[in-house]
Amino acid sequence: MELYLATAIGLLTAVGTYLLLRGRSFPVILGLTLISYAVNLFIFASGGLRLSAPPILQSGVTTYTDPVPQALVLTAIVISFAMTAVITILALGAWLGAGHDRVDMSEGDEP
Amino acid sequence: MTHLIILPVVLPALLGPITLLFFRAHPAAQRAMGLGGTAALLALALALWPIATDGPQLYRLGDWPAPFGIVLVLDRLAALMLILTAFLALAVQIYVLGTGWDRKGRHFHALFLFQLMGLNGAFLTGDAFNLFVFFEVLLIASYGLMVHGGGTNRIRAGVQYVTYNLVGSSLFLIGLATVYGMTGTLNMADLGQRIAALPDGDMALTRVAAVLLLLVFAIKGALVPLHLWLPNTYALAPGPVAALFAVMTKVGAYATLRLGSVMLPKGTTELLFGTLLAPAGMLTLIIGALGVLGAKGLARQAAFAAVASMGTVFIGLSALDPAVTAATLYYMIHSTLAGALLFLITDQVQTLRNSDDLTQARPPLPGTLAALFFVAAIATAGMPPLSGFLGKLLILQSLPVWPVWTTILLGSLLLMLGLARSGSLLFWKGYEIAAQPTGQIPPLARFALVALILSLVALTLFAGQIHPALQQIAQDLHDPIAYVQANDLPAMGAKP
């Protein structure tokens, strides 16, 4: 299970990084999304992987999984989701204003 | 446990939404909320200073004990950063009211308050994941402020800025998850203890996590080669927003300090700061100074000056010596105020010349603006008689090694040359066109600029009183026992 998850995280990060380095805003945003998926899986795995164990601490219970990474990953999901929305709107504004969606800028560009 | 500690976060968190929800159509009320809120934050920060001097104070959110609940820790360093942020924000706020920048787009004041909430939270928190959350709060507000007023190129620069910071946030999360996987805690003080107690076999993992976190803070602090987001963002952001952002790079420096002081064991910090931070800081100073020399526009020049000042700050921080840290903190206060001053003056120059290009000849600018620019340039380059000179002198005096001396002195020379060139192009070349000086600085804006200059003068005059307090802060940072004890952690041994 660890091998599968690690491979998935690695693959998502690799693809995300590749897309991030493209010159147009759509692949860049897609790349950011994939990286955030990889990060979420990584956080989820940081408490250790356990099958069919609830994330609940109770006295007398011995099989449980660490609840903290699950809380952390929720926060991370919400934030990355909101940030994706923000950058999509910004990229849309830049595309409508400039007439193209290239991410790079030249030095002479003034406000 | 005093509830005053949480107020710098809660107050803007309340005022922001109120401004957004109820004063949507009342610009005057929005301004009152913005100005009143910022002034209240300054008063609050000043009231927190005497509390912090009694030693680090803990605030448990929801009264959950330390490693399980999130805590805020108010120590001298946090209180100092709160005061600096609130003072800068108030000056910027007055400038904004004077120039009407807030009317050029929507929701300026709400975003401004959210930005302050994020900054204050980042300075106060004692929990590493909470630091991430406050980073996101201040960043998402800064995305809104950065594109305030619109314009295609500003929005395009905004896309770059957001992308860069989202990658930074991802790295931050990976670093935090690694740390959590190793230690099972996210409380900064607890992290420090548990990382130090890790077996030697985990050393590699500790270093990976430490480098990841340092990388994130270096992005925030615009350390070369991670500075690439800064020149475009600061040059294309509205002038007053860029001035407020002067404190944002300092969040990176602040977090680096906390990382090195509390979270990492001494050996790891020394290795990390000595081999990575020190050379990168020198490179940052030189690249920033070269950027100042080569910039075609005044805004870009001010942005590169901000990069250069961060170089000096990181050189000082990497030395890990209480005397140098105290000097660096002094320089950090100075460079925040001086950087903001330069950005505000740049905004005035842009407004009055209607162009940012230094080489274009335009009708002459008013003499007051020339005088203000002269003072700002002296402050930025670190020349006597202002506090920048004192700050650099203190760093050089406490760090007598030749690479540091060469870099800082060469950097200062380049900064001086670059600023002298733009000063003569801006204020003398204009007289080649036979025309009357154009425009005037709005009175409130002039008040804000003079207030910033007076604060620099005060920083110089009262250096004798301020420096001992900074030495105390540096001492606390190098021996963070009081900080750790304040967290009231359960005894080590029982694994969570």
From TrEMBL, chain A:
GO terms for cellular component: plasma membrane. It is a multi-pass membrane protein. The keyword Repeat does not apply. InterPro entries: CPA3_antiporter_subunitC, NUOK/Mnh_C1-like. Its main location: membrane. It is found in: Cell membrane. Keywords: Cell membrane, Membrane, Transmembrane, Transmembrane helix. Pfam families: Oxidored_q2 (PF00420). The chain crosses the membrane at residues 6-21, 28-51, 71-96. NCBIfam families: PRK09094.1. Belongs to the CPA3 antiporters (TC 2.A.63) subunit C family. This is Na+/H+ antiporter subunit C.
Automatic annotation (TrEMBL), chain B:
GO terms for molecular function: NADH dehydrogenase (ubiquinone) activity. It holds the Pfam family Proton_antipo_M. The chain crosses the membrane at residues 6-25, 32-52, 77-96, 108-125, 131-149, 161-183, 203-223, 235-256, 276-295, 302-320, 326-345, 365-382, 402-423, 444-464. It is a multi-pass membrane protein. Residues 127-416 form the NADH:quinone oxidoreductase/Mrp antiporter transmembrane domain. Keywords: Cell membrane, Membrane, Transmembrane, Transmembrane helix. The keyword Transmembrane helix applies. The keyword Transmembrane applies. PANTHER family: NA(+)_H(+) ANTIPORTER SUBUNIT D1, NADH DEHYDROGENASE. Belongs to the CPA3 antiporters (TC 2.A.63) subunit D family. NDH-1 shuttles electrons from NADH, via FMN and iron-sulfur (Fe-S) centers, to quinones in the respiratory chain. The immediate electron acceptor for the enzyme in this species is believed to be ubiquinone. Couples the redox reaction to proton translocation (for every two electrons transferred, four hydrogen ions are translocated across the cytoplasmic membrane), and thus conserves the redox energy in a proton gradient. This is Monovalent cation/H+ antiporter subunit D. It comes from Neogemmobacter tilapiae.
